[in-house]
Every structure is written in C-alpha cells, then in structure tokens.
Amino acid sequence: MNILVTNDDGILAPALRALRSELAALGRVVVVAPDRDQSATSHSLTLHRPFRIHRHEADIYSVDGTPTDCVVCAWYGLLEAPPDLVISGINHGPNMGEDVFYSGTVAAAIEGAMQGSPALSVSLATRELTDFVAPASFVARLARRVMERGLPRRRLLNVNIPFRPWEEIRGVAVTTLGSRVYRDTLVRKVDPRGRDYYWIGGEDPVWDPREGTDFNAVHEGWISVTPLKLDLTDEPAVDTVQEWNLQK
Description:
Layout: E1 2-6, H1 14-23, E2 28-34, E3 53-57, E4 60-63, H2 67-78, E5 85-92, H3 104-115, E6 119-124, H4 133-149, E7 155-161, E8 171-174, E9 180-181, E10 184-190, E11 196-202, E12 206-207, H5 214-219, E13 222-229, H6 235-242
Parallel strand pairs: 1-2, 1-5, 2-4, 5-6, 6-7, 8-13
Antiparallel strand pairs: 3-4, 7-13, 9-12, 10-11
Helix pairs in contact: 1-4, 2-3
Organism: Eiseniibacteriota bacterium
Function: Nucleotidase that shows phosphatase activity on nucleoside 5'-monophosphates.
GO molecular function: 3'-nucleotidase activity; 5'-nucleotidase activity; exopolyphosphatase activity; metal ion binding; nucleotide binding
C-alpha cells in the first residue's frame, strides 16, 4: 500500500517524522510537503510561476509551493502509481468549524479525495511545543481502519485531537463541524519608510459550544472525527431558488 503524507506546516515539521514512523507498518510512506510553512493557504495552486521539487532522501520530497501542489505533484509525477491513502498533518493547531475553508491541511486532504483516494486531515489542538508520538499512533490505527472499511467516493475525515495527556483523552467522537465567532481585525502598521502595511489579526477564536460539534468534543476531551464531503450544493435551496422564476 502506498501512503502519501503531506502537511501545511512544512517539510521540517516534527509531526512528519512521528507520522512516517507509525505508518511504516502499513506500507510504503511517501512524504511530499511544502518547503516552508503554508498555513491558511486553503486550496490554492501555484499557477503563475514555476516551482521546484527537492528530494531530501528516499521517499521524502519538499515542494516550493502549496499543500495542494504537493498532492498534485505526487499524483501526476512523483509516484509510480496513485496513492492508496492521503494523510495531511498532523497540523500544529486545530482545524475545526469554518476554519476548514482556510486550512491548507484540510485542502490537501480534499485534493486527495478529489483525485480519488481516501483521505484524512489531522490536527492537534495546540500551538505549544510537544511531541506527536501518541497522536501519530492513533492516526496509524485510524488509517488501518479506513483502509479496511473504505470511505465513500469524494469523502474525507477531518480529525482534531485534544492537547492533553493521552490517558486523559476520553475516546473518539464522530462530530459535525462547529461554528466560531470571528473577531479578526485588520491591523495597520507603519514601516521605517513611513509606508503602511497590514496584518490580519485579532483575538483568539470564540466557539459556539453546541453539543455534537468538533469544537465541543475537543473541548470535552474527545478526539473529533468529522466526515466531510466535497459537494457543497444546498439541495433544499435548489427548489427554493427555482421558485424565484429567474429570468435572463
């Protein structure tokens, strides 16, 4: 079995080593990751400049591009055959609720699902320094289950793991996407030459604590597993908008 591992934290992210080690028992593990941090790049592709692929050692490559570029490169050039499973992560920080639309981690898994592979995006809900051994071991067990049971076409699992001692994690909860209150702001600064520049920043996110959501599960100490599908069509709204009798 060929397993493609990527991320948006970059080729030097320590989670990659732990994940590669734990997945080795399942088959060949190929790492194709960005050469630098590509957080919040969403599903962007590099279209207006060439990029380079660097081979670090056998089955480990970095790409001068986005997480989505990494999956496309692996699918259409680096691997002799399409991967049997795509795993994106383990991200250093959560990817829950509407943040999945910004996340390069989730986007890489989505690209894997678009190309026809079962896919997982995995995040550890902390930005503190930590090791990823126990989370990586869980991902390997989940990967084995996915390969045994399969996923429907164009589906993926978005996984968020609480940051707490492993013995304090209560188990696994299958969840829905939560919703957070956005308080991002545009921060204006002035450089030494008197020119304005800007940061998108703001307060830490505040989440709606509804039961059954990814945020609530992680907050309560459960590993959140959220099945996602690629079809965003709002089926009930199709009939509603049909009733508008739109004309050209």
